[in-house]
Write a structure and sequence with these properties.
Gmad2_Ig-like_dom, GerMN, 4 helices, mainly beta, Immunoglobulin-like, GerMN domain-containing protein, globular, about 300 residues
């Protein structure tokens, strides 16, 4: 059985992405980060007194300044299209937000304000307002202002998984997400997946991309020897890699993760020192059936001459 076939034959948790639609529950403790207060505007001082006519005050800046945004480093989850599926993949990003961290992050996803730094990572949400988050028992209720549009059944499930995995990563005590639209229960978000239940994280082997590059990150500048690292859940813990520069494969080989699937485990490949320039690392899960690419992740980075 090929790695891809084996992985996709496993039953999902209640996320329902490669099986029936979901209905498990998800735990949530509402440790939402408190919002920041506005910055007071310092009023202009009085004009100096004098015998001559008083001069006009300088143009005043706006009466109120927007509150400063907080910043946080969080793992956001995006969709990545593979030859046989759409998978979920994480990317650590620095997010600016006002108010509560979790609500701010979920809003940036549903409203389409954030995209993957890696061009292969897609946010399946766009222009869906977030009215707010609330907690009912152990479930985080996500109240949306409209439904999701323009996605098929698999993509609808992955879009839901984007929110589930992002929210549970920010607050590990969250157990389940449920959805409402304009405060009312909803039977589906995009017409394919039953949304009347609760959504939990599925297994990593069934939900996440089988191969992932964590470093070098997309767009990163590397000084010195290149050490590539990532995570994988692949057959016999083995994957292939290529290093490409100016459209030419300059090096290639195979690597191994610490464990084989169903465990998603770390891997390291030492690529050594390279001449300055732009490179693309390609990591591939190879089908044991026909040698084709079952899943792929890439990262384009620059080697500095300094």
């Amino acid at each position: 059985m090929t790695p891809a076939t084996w992985r996709r034959s496993m039953g999902r948790e209640s996320t329902g992405r490669r099986g029936a639609a979901c209905a498990l529950g998800l735990l949530l403790s509402t440790a939402l980060v408190a919002g920041c207060s506005g910055v007071p505007v310092t009023p202009a001082g009085p004009s100096p007194s004098g015998t001559g006519p008083s001069s006009a005050s300088p143009s005043a800046s706006p009466s109120e300044s927007p509150p400063p945004a907080h910043e946080a480093s969080v793992e956001l989850f995006f969709a990545i299209s593979q030859p046989a599926s759409i998978d979920l993949i994480g990317e650590v990003r620095t997010i600016e937000y006002d108010g509560a961290l979790l609500e701010g992050v979920i809003r940036t996803i549903t409203e389409g304000e954030v995209r993957g730094a890696d061009p292969d990572y897609d946010n399946l949400w766009n222009d869906v307002p977030l009215h707010g988050l609330s907690v009912e028992g152990d479930v985080l209720v996500v109240d949306l202002g409209s439904r999701l549009s323009g996605v098929g059944a698999e993509a609808e499930q992955v879009a839901i998984d984007q929110l589930v995995w992002t929210a549970t990563g920010i607050d590990p005590s969250i157990r389940a997400l449920s959805f409402t639209v304009d405060g009312a229960p909803v039977d589906t978000l995009a017409g394919h997946i039953d949304a009347r239940g609760e959504f939990v994280r599925g297994s990593e082997a069934e939900t996440l991309s089988p191969v992932q590059i964590d470093s070098p990150a997309e767009g990163e500048t590397v000084v010195g020897a290149i050490v590539a690292q990532g995570r994988a859940c692949v057959f016999e813990a083995t994957f292939a890699w290529e290093l490409i520069s100016s459209g030419t494969v300059v090096d290639q080989g195979s690597g191994m993760s610490a464990e084989s699937c169903p465990v998603r485990s770390p891997w390291t490949v030492e690529l050594g020192a390279r001449p300055p320039g732009e490179y693309t690392l390609v990591v591939t899960e190879i089908s044991m059936k026909d040698g084709s690419a079952a899943s792929v992740d890439t990262a384009t980075f620059t080697v500095s001459g300094r």
